Amino acid sequence: MKTSRTGRKGRRYGGTTKKGNPTKNNKSLNRQSSQNKINKRNRSTDPDIYTLKTSKTPQKTKVVVERKEVSTKNRVLTEAMHLRLMISLGMIILGLIGLMMKVYAIQSDSKDYNQKVLSQQRYDSRDIPYRRGDIMDRNGTYLATSNKVYNLILDPYQINQAQEKYLDPTVSLLAEVFEYDEQNIREIIASNSDARYIRQEKEVSYEVKERFEKRKDEINKDFAAHGLKSRVHGVWFEDAYLRVYPYNSLACNAVGFANSDNTLGTGGIEQYYNDELIGTSGREYGYLNDDYNLERVIKPASDGNSIVSTLDSNIQKIVEKHISDWEAEMGSKVTACIVMDPNSGEILAMATSKTYDLNNPRNIEKYYTQDDFNALDENGQNEIMNDIWRNYCVSDTYEPGSPSKIFTVAAALEEGSVKPEDSFFCDGGQYVGDRWIRCAVRSGHGSVTLKESLIRSCNDAMMQIVAGLGTEKFSTFQHLFGIGEKSGIDLPGEPDTSSLIYHIPDMTSIDLATNSFGQNYNCTMVQMSAAICSVINGGYYYEPHIVKQILNSQGSVIKDIEPKLVRETVSSSTSAFIREALRDVIERGTGKAAKVEGYDVGGKTGTSQKLPRGSGKYLLSFAGFAPVDDPQVFCYVIVDEPNTDNQAHSIYASNLFSKIMTDVLPYMGIFPKDEAAAQKIQEERDAKLKAQESSEAQNNDNSAGENSTESVSSDTKTQQNNSEPNSSTSAAKEKTPNTSGEGNASESSEYETDEYIEDANADFEGDAASASLSSNESSAAQQSKEDKSTTAAETKKAVKKETAKSEKNKKKSSKNTSKSSQSETTAVKSSNKKKKSESSVAGTDGNKNKTKKKTGN
């Protein structure tokens, strides 16, 4: 029993030393032998063998266990393992076979597959156009809007993939719906065989698109029903927007137009507010899923904001109608008008005689023949187009003439250099330095009060007033009224006029004298309108503006443009004095032709000589407002170079002002204090509106401006337009004042002759009836009447050439005018002789007049 236990202990604890040498202990040898037997027995089944190692440490044996990897070199696969391996290999082979079959199937049907993918390629990346914002008037009437249309796109590549199936039906349908020539379409497809995108037709309406799509479906279904593979293919429509101007030429200068892709505006609100009107294009992405179905990802477009302008389309129509009528009766180089709210700076209407169709802005048939236009080079054509598109009210400068006398008197009153009760003696002119500068009435107005200096438009009195004011203060008030500075109007093209006025270091006494009555410096219509409004409204200068609100694409207000008070110009007492004086200008002064029946109206005439002096060219104007006590509307009219031999008659501009205001005032709800007159005006207004509505119903496609186009066919006017295509540019050059002393000296002879005959003749109408007129004044009034009769005769002749209507009117009045025609001719000759006589003795009479002035004062 002991022996067996010892044997088991030997097998359990037997081993070798660390170096593998046998020990001297017999028990150790027995244990090693037993362990080796165990290892041999377990080597085939145990993955790891643990070997006991002993150290040589005396008297104590240290056992260390080491792990050894068992070699599998001779391992044999079991039957189960072999089965699993074969199954895995079989599955891999089957997968490869399936994949190869799939690839083969795709390749064998690659043509149809590619066509299916390519047919959807337009969805892979497509722009979604935004809608340009609308432009409306203050009442919500659309002046510009964007209508959705479609562009017809051809894809020749798709069509050419199977011409025998796609070409004939596709070409036939295009020819049927769009009336194309089939041969031309075939040539386009053949010559662009690899093209994926050809814009064949732009601005296709929804109705035409639907007709095409309907016929396409019918044809394709019919082919399929007969088992044919032919079908209409390779044609599709993309969305687009067409800019539309419902009233064609209405307010064309103020509204402007957009280019074909609606990304850029030219002129007017379209250009100035382009960043507000444009939006952001969207994007549509597409792909085919595993089932070859189209999947889409859409980023929608962001539409542009809309603009609510201060314009009133009804007032605009009134203004354009009367300008058109004037152009048909006589015409001019340019006729322009601004209607404005003097208490806010809002522009209610802005129009010129140079109009164009906003829907077709490059149509120049109204002004030039196509042959004449084509004969010009590119620069010449661009000059013509820019001249037509130019907004005269904002961009052109001119010498303002007598309306600027308002500023001279207002400045003197504010500075205290004159008092309302002061009077001045006019003897027909004034020596300034060594130059004699004439008044409108060469024989002199005699003694005039401060108010009468405006009523009678006396240049002599203005020169005396400004002499007391001084150069520095006069220049200060010029800037205070905004002369020589940009008005800040929200329209493009306003020039910098700082170089077109005299500044303190350069202003001579002659410059000061001529500036006092509006000559020898330049400004714009917008500058003059804002400045005069600041005088008549109590002294508040508002920045002129043409936009009232900005709306987002949902119609919500995102910005209100409030009236901007820039500065105060004059006191309320000065404002009241000027208003009273301007009322008398119409009641008993130079502006009687501007009277509006039943209304209390004030205003100032202007007859400005143009360069070169003595050329006989004049710019006529009238600036007026109503009611006088509480101005609600301001109207400024300019007639630049009327088509008549004798242009120096502000009556042309005054008459046009009267006609415009006669219609505008009742429309705005401003009625006379006299109830009978108010009732009469209301009835006339209702009748006009009814007639206008009837006319618009019969001819809905024509705007007010276009209705007048056909009637403007004067030979004289056509000749002028053809001979002066660049008149705007040359006029701008003429208007620049000469600031050099040398230039002023060279003009001394002009001052001594016929220069600065401001508001002469016609402007003095009615003064002969005044009891205070001197004998000299009576003589001037008589001369004025004679010259006016001459002008009337000339006007009738011009009208006779232009319109049949005027011919009839002339025949009706021929009996009344035949007796006076001979005396009119005599008066003209007498007047011309008198002018030459005065011109020749100007130097001799100068000292006498100077002595006379001193005695009078």
Which short descriptors sum up this protein?
857 residues; alpha+beta; Penicillin-binding protein 2a (Domain 2); 4 domains; 7-stranded mixed sheet; 5-stranded antiparallel sheet; 32 helices; elongated; disordered C terminus; Beta-lactam/transpept; membrane; penicillin binding; PCN-bd_Tpept; PBP_dimer
Would you give an account of this structure?
The protein is an alpha+beta fold. It folds into four domains: 2-69, no CATH class; 85-117; 119-309, Alpha-Beta Complex (Penicillin-binding protein 2a (Domain 2)); 347-379 and 399-856, DD-peptidase/beta-lactamase superfamily (Beta-lactamase), CATH 3.40.710.10. The protein has 32 helices and 26 strands. Strands 5, 6, 7, 8, 13, 21 and 22 form a seven-stranded mixed sheet that branches. Strands 15-14-26-25-24 form a five-stranded antiparallel sheet, sandwiched between helices. A hairpin with a 5-residue loop joins β21 and β22 (557-560). α12 runs antiparallel to α23 (651-667) and α30 packs antiparallel against α31. Residues 1-57, 679-857 are annotated as: Disordered. Residues 679-693, 784-807 have a biased composition (Basic and acidic residues). Residues 28-37, 694-748 have a biased composition (Polar residues). Residues 129-290 form the Penicillin-binding protein dimerisation domain.
